Amino acid sequence: MLNVTDSKIIELYLGKERFSLLNGKVLKFKRTLDMEKGYLLREMIWRSPLGKEVKITLKRLVSLTKRHVMAFQHQIEPLNFSGIITINSSLNGAVDNHMHEEEDPRYSASLGDLGLIVTNKMLENTKAVMVQETLRSKLSLACAMENCLTKGSPFATSNEQTGDSAKVSFQLNGEINKKIVLEKYVAYYTSRDYPVNKLPEMAAGMVEEARLIGFQDLLNEQNKYCQQFWDNSGITVEGDPKTEQGLNFNLFQLMQVAGCNGQTGIPAKGLTSEGYDGHYFWDTEIYMVPVFAALFPEEARKLLEYRFNILHHARSRARELSHKKGALYPWRTIAGEEGSSYFPAGTAQYHINAAIAHAINKYIEMTGDYSFMLDYGAEILFETARLWEDLGDYIPSKGNKFCYNEVTGPDEYTALVNNNCYTNYMAQWHLQYAYETAHFLKQKHPDTYQRLIEKIVLQDKEIEAWREAAENIYIPYDQKLKVHPQDDGFFDKKIWDFSATSADKYPLMLHYHPLVIYRYQVCKQSDMILAQLLLEDNFTLEQKRRDYDYYEPITTHDSSLSPSIFSIVASEIGYFEDAYKFYTMSVRLDLDNLLKDTNYGLHMANMAGSWLCVVKGFAGMRTKGGQLSFNPYCPQNWQGYRFRIIFKGSRLEVSVNSNKVSYKLFEGDKISFFHKGQKIVLDAGREQADCELP
Amino acid sequence: MLNVTDSKIIELYLGKERFSLLNGKVLKFKRTLDMEKGYLLREMIWRSPLGKEVKITLKRLVSLTKRHVMAFQHQIEPLNFSGIITINSSLNGAVDNHMHEEEDPRYSASLGDLGLIVTNKMLENTKAVMVQETLRSKLSLACAMENCLTKGSPFATSNEQTGDSAKVSFQLNGEINKKIVLEKYVAYYTSRDYPVNKLPEMAAGMVEEARLIGFQDLLNEQNKYCQQFWDNSGITVEGDPKTEQGLNFNLFQLMQVAGCNGQTGIPAKGLTSEGYDGHYFWDTEIYMVPVFAALFPEEARKLLEYRFNILHHARSRARELSHKKGALYPWRTIAGEEGSSYFPAGTAQYHINAAIAHAINKYIEMTGDYSFMLDYGAEILFETARLWEDLGDYIPSKGNKFCYNEVTGPDEYTALVNNNCYTNYMAQWHLQYAYETAHFLKQKHPDTYQRLIEKIVLQDKEIEAWREAAENIYIPYDQKLKVHPQDDGFFDKKIWDFSATSADKYPLMLHYHPLVIYRYQVCKQSDMILAQLLLEDNFTLEQKRRDYDYYEPITTHDSSLSPSIFSIVASEIGYFEDAYKFYTMSVRLDLDNLLKDTNYGLHMANMAGSWLCVVKGFAGMRTKGGQLSFNPYCPQNWQGYRFRIIFKGSRLEVSVNSNKVSYKLFEGDKISFFHKGQKIVLDAGREQADCELP
Q: Which of A251, A378, A596, B4 is least surrounded, with the fewest CB atoms within 10 Å of its CB?
């Protein structure tokens, strides 16, 4: 993951003294992420080593409407002096990667000298453009800046280029209690979107456009965009302001990272740091797509279109793994190629194919957008189903059941096992869904179907083989315990000795060699609990409770993906205390840096998971077979909560308190859904329904 | 694996034409490895592009008696011209690693610029010394050369240093039919053996000593050494000259590589090329130590002393893997640290501990040298037994049997399995042997025992736990097939489709991703067959045949370690055709480049294995409980064969033909052994026994 040109650099000199929080005295410092308006604010009063006091107010925004633009506003007010003030605004192309202090398998090594190379620079008055290129893939990036002093008159303006940087300097005579305001506009353009030779002028043109709009109007525009977002997606909790803040912080981060372009996914850490090298994983589909489908369907669709756009890579990967047919999505990737180096906890996680199929299904159920299936989804679905069919075998010693050997489930604390229960259940669902979709398309969309089967040379007998495999899939089950073993050999291992493991030994993966962890019954996150959430109809409530009772004590939650799933399932099976406990482990995980690794970046999937804790967990929202339903309750220490979702184009507000649920249609003509099994229809004649809670 | 200073370079110019086999015309070329005398001979007649003909005779030896010395003799005879001849003799310190054309998991990438650095050079008349150093570990190496024209008088002698090289030049007036002879003496010294500051003078002194001895006397000394070796170890086959040559070539290579210093092991490829990075593996103990124990006991002992000398690393490695006690030997190493990067087919091969214990046992049985046990062996044995005790667990779902989960056996075509049958059998044997040894030492060598248990803080209850674990070890067995599954899940996999696998797809590991190979019943080499050889008493003949019949068809022999083991076991169970077939796969594997990878180096373990095919296979030699026994037969297409071994200090010659075996004591006072169960004693009164074969 390469860092782009750093455009945030603005240096301030009071006479010859450089402003720095590390020198002098900080009399006031306040940093505010204004989620309502969408900008970052820093307010400081600083006394220099020589005693000059200055008030500094910095605003920064990354535009959500003009996706190429960043804007800065720096207000500088001398409080007790007059004299020369120098402001330097720079672009720096020599950006290192973060150095990781400790070895950590979740993060990659520094790139060393493999950063971006400056290939072109332009500097004119207060404007600069820098073009940089990646070493190997030769992708280009242009970054432009424009700097305007909107208050204050410089007696000297200069500029300078050195090596990998460009600098614009203003010198002014600062006056006591008189504000100086610098506005800086930055734009980024890359050769992935535009022709290389156009990049500098496009970036330069965009900063000019931004300058003409001005910082305040950019901020107003941002404000408006955010207002709309919070109207549609904001969540309210009465009686629990800390977790309410956590939920909305998480939503804000998800909103910010949505690329909406069909060419990119969402990295595990969003764009917030370098953990996991900016790679996209299955958690996009399992955690984030369901949230976007309910709040921001366009992004959900674009994320799935991205998977379609890398389908050719997934086909090649399947060939590399000796599958004559089908597609295998990479465990971790950006451009589409497999990026995992340790395949037992990478490529062996074949379940990523099912995660993508499942997200397609959930997206369509929530939005009703079957055109996605026709345009993209069916091809993904069929190609990935082919892989499941090719990967498995009818095994004599397993009663000729269809088995998957040497795979790894989501819980990476075991690897390369036979019949990972999650994988087998998901493959079964996937094969069945592909089979049903093929038949549905054949009948209802014969032209689309015909084009598709010709394109991918799909035969009827293959489709039949999917059904047959799905029917015969082997599901490991322990008749004595009446619990699903995570895989064939899982119950043949000893349970990890948790009583002998001190708190500082977690996460286990940082303190024990995989060969140690693999030898025990211990889960980083639980496969089985996730299967029960995703394929809820496959399990009775009693079965869910037994599996939960078995796996909960042996799960360390060393993965941030774990707590939200436990919370949702706990809500469903009536373990309300657990549901709330795991919700709190999820909702402020980054705000409170619970895993002590937020410096490597935010845990995007968990952020989505925390919203799911409320909506799928507390409110029991489901979209079974295209039918929306709720089964809400109010956590004991809450007075109430309210959220909105968009279902098939209609927006519904759900307000829950301890004895009542109100459903309100506030956008769209009509919506029908189930409340605890009872059908409710809202339309122009009845925009709200109130239901008592027992 | 770093290449030392190249001292082999001798250039020849006829006038201005440089001798090269790539130019001009080669009228005669013959290369002979004279194994009897121990030197390499090249005889050439070459016609230069301008028509000058020259006869060149090159002899080269690496002294087996003066371990620091190499010597060269170059004879040059102008056949049809007189004129200026120039001879340049060089040392070159800039030695690259071989570049590997194809990606191959068995070989590592090139080291790039990580070669040796020249730190010091001296050049005086015809002598040069070069000192080089490794980049990271700062090991030093000095290489000296001395050059003498013993026939021919140069009219000019010069020398030159440039960068990483040193050169000595002679210019002569060559005369038709008059021989010119250059003798070059080279010596290497390293800081592992001597103080850094002494290295240059030691190397210089040694080439001076070699020069005084002279090439011919060095060759005579070499000849004498080799004669002794062949007298003791040579093997004769009547009626099969090609495999006889193969056997003796293999013995010659083993003899050459024996370091006899206790500080080094034998790399997988010996010192012949860069495959496997010069690392030592378990095959030293399982394949080579038994051969050395029977032919060259001092080297067998030194190889085991090397393991003792790295025991502290093995202890550290065990701690890294969370074992509170005991030692885990590295899967691949030179200095003692684990060098494997892909641990599922590296560190997970815990069976290396048992291989070392087994070799200690075999060495003592063959030599009677129990002092090794007292001085070194017991400490290794107990520390490694501790690891087996700590690694396993009593597993309720396996009837509370003692199980080993998530280990990898010798067959790397499966990895990370539960209860690898080979591993469990070997661990059982190892624990029992450690238990018995502890009791034996306690009674017979109480002082040694006391010192040792104090040193390693060994408690009686630990020793008791070894016995208990050994008694309770879980052995996977399929009651229906009456065959041992290779591991718990092995029979739950489909058998590899060999009929659909064309010959060019072998070795499978170069053509299929491990995830594909791991999914099938297919063996690179068979664990079970090896267990039957090493622990022969654990299996009835019928069981051995059933297991052999099961595993032989699913073994690809993609590992050079495989055929010899199959051959020996086939001999034992009466599958004589198979025994001979697998023997031929082993015996000329490198001479005929059967695996097409001899360019990466000789397969040292297989070379030892081919001798075992004859001695343990055809002649049925065993050393059970310190008793030597034979059960010989003569392969059908052989008239006979003869070999010698040394057993407890007495040397025995065994001659077998189709109807008779002769045993002859030719060194030592007395030897007793069993022939097909019948006890035979040879001594001064009866030096030979002849036994009829049915």
A: A596
Partner residue facing A343 (CB), from B320, B488, B515: B515
Our CA-based measurement puts residue A397 at a distance from the nearest CA of chain B, in whole angstroms, of 6
Residue of B344, B398, B403 lying closest to A344 (CB–CB)? B344
Query: In this structure, are B621 and B667 located in the same domain?
Result: yes
Instruction: Check: CB of residue B579 under 8 Å from CB of residue B617.
Output: yes
Q: Which residues in chain A are closer than 8 Å to B415, comparing Cβ atoms?
A: 416
How far, in Å, CA of A150 to CA of A167, rounded?
18
Backbone region of residue A277 per phi and psi (left: phi > 0; alpha: psi in -120 to 50; beta: other values): left
- Give Cα separations from A538 to A175, A290, A475, A542 (angstroms): 73, 20, 11, 12
Residue B666 sits in which domain range?
223-278+557-694
* Selected catalytic residue, list B274, B299, B379, B412: B412
- Whether B560 has a pLDDT exceeding 70, the answer reads yes
- How many domains would you assign to chain A? 3
| Residues A349, A252 share a domain | yes
Evaluate whether residue B660 is within a structural domain.
yes
Report d(CA A322, CA A619) in Å as an integer. 45
> Is residue A635 domain-shared with residue A522, that is, in the same domain?
no
The predicted pLDDT at position B615 comes to 98
Q: Write the DSSP symbol of residue B640.
A: E
Q: What confidence tens digit (pLDDT) does each residue in B355-397 have?
A: 999 999 999 999 999 999 999 999 999 999 999 999 999 999 9
CATH code, domain with B180: 2.70.98.40
Examine the domain organization and report whether A578 and A438 are in the same domain: yes
Q: The domain that contains B679 carries what CATH number? A: 2.60.420.10
Nearest CA in chain A to B501: A322
Across the interface, of B320, B418, B494, the residue whose CB is closest to A489 is B418
Q: List CB contacts (< 8 A) between B516 and chain A.
A: 321-322
A515–B348: do the CB atoms touch at under 8 Å?
yes
A395 contact residues in B (CB cutoff 8 A):
492-494
Q: Do B494 and A348 touch (CB under 8 A)?
A: no
The pLDDT score that the predictor gives to residue B259 is: 87
A108, pLDDT greater than 80: no
The chain B residues in contact with chain A (CB within 8 A) are 320-322, 343-344, 347-348, 393, 395, 397-398, 403, 405-406, 415-416, 418, 488-489, 491-494, 512-516, 518-519
Q: Please check whether residue A211 lies inside any domain of the structure.
A: no
Q: Is the pLDDT of residue A686 over 80?
A: yes
Provide the token pair at B331. 């899967």
pLDDT of A260 strictly over 90: no
* Nearest CA among A248, A221, A183 for reference residue A37: A221
> B519 vs A406: CB contact, 8 Å cut-off?
yes
Residue B258 shares a structural domain with residue B118: no
* A459 and A534 housed in the same domain: yes
Catalytic site residue B101? no
Residues B83 and B28 in one domain: yes
Q: Alpha-carbon distance B640 to B643, whole Å?
A: 11
pLDDT tens figures, A422-446: 999 999 999 999 999 999 999 999 9
CB contact under 8 A, B406 and A518: yes
Tell whether B26 is covered by a domain: yes
Whether residues B578 and B614 fall in one domain? yes
**For residue B322, which residues of chain A lie inside 8 Å, CB to CB?**
512-513, 516
Give B424→chain A minimum CA distance, Å: 15
pLDDT in tens, B255-292: 999 988 999 999 999 999 888 989 999 999 999 999 99
User: Exposed, middle or buried: residue B557 (CB in 10 Å: 0-12, 13-18, 19+)?
Assistant: buried
Per the domain annotation, does B188 fall within a domain? yes
Separation in Å, CA of A505 to nearest CA in chain B = 12
Two tokens, residue A149: 């002093």
pTM equals 0.93
Question: Which domain-ending residue is among A139, A172, A196?
Answer: A196
Q: How far is A391 from chain B (nearest CA, A)?
A: 9
Q: State residue A104's pLDDT score.
A: 52
Q: What is the ipTM of this complex?
A: 0.92
